[in-house]
Design brief:
Low-confidence stretches: none
Structural class: alpha+beta
Mean pLDDT: 85
Number of helices: 14
Strand content: 15-25%
Helix content: 55-70%
Shape: globular
Largest sheet: 5 strands, mixed
Length: 317
């Protein structure tokens, strides 16, 4: 028995649930089930996302989100649980030695309630709705009710992203223009050096899907709009747009500090944490960091000088 959707979210949640049910390769599904088993049956679902989902390639680092009923059900120590309660999610490394060969993954751990709270439009953390307005798959679900709970939480993320796309976007434009404009802002606020064309490329991979999700998201958010062919026109007063711009300015300023705080936390929750952080910074900033034995032994002591150099180079601004 599934729980009823939040008022206004029904159609969007149903569309998200259908998308999350897309098939994934058997090895990924087995891996997700292994991760869920670590919770003693208290994982509502395991989301699979990222480039491996798009390409089907499993030879790189897979990306999972493990969504729990309660942080106490994950096999981590009390310090890790406190860190996750303060700044979710925790990030860990995991391996699976299945019949298809070894698989490796970066896994993020948080509760469904945390996911949903951070996915809301007025959350100061944009990470969840930025990531999960893009396609994902539910590689494991405990039961149909849990699958619906996860789908509804992801629908909150899509609704939030659609809301920001409208408030920060043009008064009139195509769905691709609304989404690409939003992704340009979110990419610029994070530690990334991807091509300027990347935000548009996200939409171009599935234009019909993004167009549908935009309209369903606006409907769920209660935003009025009209459609003339491919062109959408919103009815948002100018004062609301100005308020949204100020609110976005705050989130833009917070984005990099939050990214850095999570990277610092990953030193303790991620196996080989110092090397992971160095790899993450290089991937998203283009600046290579050689991790020394001292930095591996004393990551917090070494972090200050490294972050100062990156700041001086303009990477963290």
């Amino acid at each position: 028995m599934t729980t009823p959707a939040e008022p206004g979210l029904e159609r969007l949640a149903a569309a998200v649930a259908e998308e999350l049910a897309a098939p994934v390769v058997p090895g990924v599904r087995r891996f997700a089930a292994e991760l869920a088993a670590r919770s003693g049956g208290r994982a509502a679902g395991v989301l699979f996302y990222g480039s491996a989902l798009r390409t089907g390639a499993t030879d790189g680092l897979l990306d999972f989100y493990v969504l729990l009923d309660d942080l106490a059900h994950w096999d981590a120590g009390p310090m890790a649980r406190r860190a996750n309660a303060a700044l979710p999610p925790n990030v860990e490394y995991a391996e699976s030695a299945g019949p298809d060969g070894g698989l490796r993954a970066k896994i993020a751990i948080m509760t469904v309630a945390q996911f949903r709270a951070h996915a809301r439009a007025l959350s100061r953390d944009t990470t969840i709705w930025t990531r999960f307005t893009q396609p994902a798959a539910l590689a494991f679900a405990r039961d149909p009710g849990a699958a619906w709970e996860v789908a509804e939480a992801v629908a909150v993320a899509v609704r939030s992203a659609a809301w920001w796309a409208a408030l920060l976007g043009p008064a009139s434009g195509t769905a691709a223009e609304f989404w690409s404009g939003l992704f340009r802002r979110t990419y610029a606020s994070e530690l990334r050096v991807e091509s300027a064309a990347q935000p548009s490329a996200i939409v171009e991979r599935a234009p019909e899907r993004f167009a549908r999700m935009l309209e369903l998201g606006w409907e769920a958010a209660g935003l009025r709009f009209t459609r003339d062919g491919a062109r959408l026109t919103t009815a948002i007063p100018e004062r609301e747009r100005r308020t949204a711009e100020r609110a976005w300015g705050l989130r833009r300023r917070l984005a990099k500090p939050l990214n850095l705080a999570r990277l610092a936390k990953a030193v303790f929750t991620f196996s080989g944490g110092a090397d992971y952080v160095a790899w993450k910074i290089e991937r998203h900033s283009g600046h290579r960091i050689e991790v020394t034995p001292f930095q591996r032994r004393h990551p917090l002591l070494a972090a200050g000088p490294v972050l100062w150099r990156l700041w001086r180079r303009g990477v963290l601004r």
